[in-house]
Amino acid sequence: MDLTAADHRIPLSDGNTIPVLGLGTYTEPWLTSEGTCKASVKIAIDTGYRHIDGAYVYENEHEVGEAIREKMAEGKVKREDIFYCGKLWATNHEPERVRPCLEKTLNALQVDYVDLYIIEIPMAFKPGDEVYPRDENGRWLYHKTDLCATWEALEACKDAGLVKSLGVSNFNRRQLELILKKPGLKYKPVCNQVECHPYFTQPKLRKFCQQHDIVIVAYSPLGTSRNPAWVNTASPPLLKNELLNSLGKKYNKTAAQVALRFNIQRGVVVIPKSSNPDRIKENFQIFDFSLTEEEMKNIEALNNNIRLVEMLLWCDHPEYPFHEEY
Ligand SMILES: NC(=O)c1ccc[n+]([C@@H]2O[C@H](COP(=O)([O-])OP(=O)(O)OC[C@H]3O[C@@H](n4cnc5c(N)ncnc54)[C@H](OP(=O)(O)O)[C@@H]3O)[C@@H](O)[C@H]2O)c1
């Protein structure tokens, strides 16, 4: 893969391509002021980002849409230059809810199609408009849906032209195989968006995905914001790691840039989130240096198999993906 080329895209199994670097847009809604996401997306587009990772449940898709439309009006980008990934939330796994959920994203963004639409988590929740449904005792209201039926509804959305590529997120090997072995499968998942960074390199899942032409999209590629409300802070902060910092010194880069470069250099797409203009720009400056084979191996060896995003609150869901080794 030529990672010095002007347009840093990698091929997907369906013939489309995905920019290897995207901007993550998840921020805790209760900690974020209106307009933050829009400002970040505008800076990102000006910087050269063409891939934006979002979701309806992030509650800021309308801001992503405004930013994209403003940049289009300025003549900075055309719709086809932008790669937007949206996500099907867990309360919408029932086939009849799939298209309306995608349409909510299209309406929020005010676009005709998204480039990629992925099942956000393999666990279904009680269908309805409550995003995080619980009973009167605070217990989660789960739901049983056939993931293959959900997938077929997604395939129909692609046939209707509402989405270019289909993928999944937080799926383990068994759940990927469920889809891959589905009788009459029309479109394979092109990607699996999962946690991936030097402390959690996903060796086995990555190998399995490579064998099936499924691109790994790395969420939390910088080790998350470490908000204890949803992050396991058992391992030390990734960006303080000595090796990443010493390699940073060698290349006149930061630990964050080394962590991102590590993943893109091995064909893993990264979607770092930042709301800070300097860091948004910093995270883009990863195409003008490369790590040696030995350095790549040394970073790979930092893997400690400790997940930061464990989603333990749903660990009793029958489709909780992280009980299995990978
Ligand atoms: N599919 C899923 O289940 C799932 C789960 C989690 C995340 N995601 C997606 O993946 C994206 C990224 O993951 P994430 O937000 O968990 O974590 P991340 O990108 O690993 O880290 C974000 C944190 O790092 C900081 N940061 C950004 N650039 C930095 C730099 N150059 N140096 C130092 N700190 C830096 C950010 O702060 P500032 O904003 O202040 O720079 C923020 O606190 C999300 O936004 C979302 O789009 C998907």
Automatic annotation (TrEMBL):
Q: Which UniProt keywords apply?
A: NADP, Oxidoreductase
Positions marked as site (Lowers pKa of active site Tyr)? K87
Residues forming the NADP-dependent oxidoreductase domain are 21-303
Q: Name one GO biological process term.
A: bile acid biosynthetic process
UniProt record similarity statement? Belongs to the aldo/keto reductase family.
Give the highest taxon in the source lineage: Eukaryota
Task: Supply the name of the protein.
Answer: Aldo-keto reductase family 1 member D1
Q: Which organism is it from?
A: Molossus molossus (Pallas' mastiff bat)
Q: Which PANTHER family match?
A: ALDO/KETO REDUCTASE
Leader sequence residues: none
Cited Pfam families: Aldo_ket_red
Residues of the active site are Y58
A Gene Ontology molecular function term of the record: Delta4-3-oxosteroid 5beta-reductase activity
In this chain, substrate is annotated as bound at H143
